[in-house]
Amino acid sequence: MDIEWEDQDRAPSSMGSKFLTLVERPDAKGGLFWEHEYGKLLKQVQVHRAVTDGAMQRAFRDRSEERVDVAKLRVALAQEKAGIKALLDFLDADEAGNHH
Question: Which superkingdom heads the taxonomic lineage of this protein's source (predicted)?
């Protein structure tokens, strides 16, 4: 039986099937995959939050040329909110046991 490991630094290998025990569905994704997916969602929220924070700082009576209008602030807030929802949906799915 051919084996592909979650650890990308580990080369694929082979093993006799009589030494293996199936413990999960063959289509299940490993923990490293889900940690990577969570990391991507978390990074997106952090990026959106930084944009939102900057937009809020520049939205009210900023005398510089970089003033952000309220419409752009609303867009930044909506993007942050969508990112947080995706992150919470991911965590809900994890608590329900849907990330195997």
Answer: Bacteria
Which residues face 14 on adjacent strands?
Answer: 2
pLDDT tens per residue, range 70-87: 888 999 999 999 999 999
Cα 43-83-61 angle, rounded to 5 deg = 95
> Helix 70-95 crosses helix 31-59 at what angle (to 10 degrees)?
160
In the chain, at which residue ranges do the beta strands (DSSP E only) sit? 2-3, 13-14
d(CA 34, CA 87): 12
Q: What are phi and psi of 51, to 5 degrees?
A: -65, -45
- Quick check: 29 and 23 in contact, CB under 8 A? no
Residue 3 phi, psi (nearest 5)? -125, 130
- 71 C-beta neighbours (distance < 10 Å), count: 8
pLDDT, tens digit (0-9, with 9 covering 90-100), for 7-25: 778 888 888 877 777 666 6
